[in-house]
Amino acid sequence: MFVDQVKVFVKGGDGGNGLVAYRREKFVPRGGPAGGDGGNGGDVIFEVDEGLNTLMDFRYQHHFKAAKGENGMNQKQHGKNADPLVVSVPPGTTVKDAATDKVIADLTDHKQRAVIAKGGRGGRGNARFATARNPAPEIAENGEPGDELDVVVELKLLADVGLVGFPSVGKSTFLSVVTAAKPKIADYHFTTLSPNLGVVESQDHRSFVMADLPGLIEGAHEGVGLGHQFLRHVERTRLLLHVIDMSGMEGRDPYEDYVTINNELSSYDQRLENRPQIIVANKMDIPDAKDNLELFKEQLGNDDIPIYSISTVTRDGLDELLYAVADKLDEIPKQEEQVEEVDERVIYKFEKEEAPFKITRDDDGAYVLYGEKIESLFKRTDFSHDQSINRFARQMRSMGVDEALRKRGAKDGDTVRLMDYEFEFVD
After folding, report:
1. Which residues are in the OCT domain (predicted)?
2. Which residues fall within 8 angstroms of residue 8, CB to CB, at 6 or more apart?
């Protein structure tokens, strides 16, 4: 089964907690704080494995969670950092944030890596909080939680040549003749339900990868038929072979087919309009094909687009076509290099800093605090020690939380809610 798009959940490992501890050796009076820091949580990393060609593994596993960092230990020992969770993906994989549709990574080369979910930082132990005023602090931090998000993983086949055209024009048969691929072939529409890959070697020993994509029909870019599911695979091909049935056996006009398919490609992605293309006039062994080809050339009226006549049954014209494809690929760079002018001036952009917290009211009258900064501070606080609680209260006061609550009308005894916890406001 060919799987080329999945939605999965990834979570970086949480950081380990810092420790509150003191030196207790027999001959070391007042040894002082000795709590170590927690280790960092593991990252979730996607790595390209050129041996894979589908996302089949993701079909059976939808959750990827990295390990948690080890907690801090006595004698100022740092907890062990967690190893990253490395997930293998095939070349041509694109990873997008499911919530924003933003591309996180585009993985094409073997062993290329990208951090998809970063692990949390380990919390500091009480040895890090010792000062002259407080030489024996009972303060430690919890580890930060790792990033967690839903991502959409898409596979876009990395083929040099893509076969496009209406269903039943002979793309699968052509691929089976020129490569060792064995696609399913039959006389009804949509025999090809998933892309097929094959390696072609011409008579002069030049090789390239060819992909047979499911047949397109009118409206494919809007989701009609099966072809729209695989239009993404056309994006990465360097050359398109537009296969057209010149026999007219199914009552379709070859030129109308040609125009329709090109409209579908450009409607899906404007860049495909300028993608190099070779027209393959197939089924030329059928009597009416030659007349249809002459009429097609008149309607096309463009001598710049090469046209090659072939028959997959008699194998006429195949060698000439493969030579032409190999020659064209030699002219096309494997990756389009984007050259940008470098501006030597340094421009500093100052973005308005997001407020550390915001306040709303719940239906029950409770004041609700929320915001990335205050929630992160709350998660790192170890509420099992009074000094940690007092430190959290001071940090909230320095943020301006108390003053903001007073302005919103908070009074003694009012409920203040932060995440899943409730506090009593004391003026």
Report:
1. 349-427
2. 58, 61, 62, 63, 64, 150, 151, 153
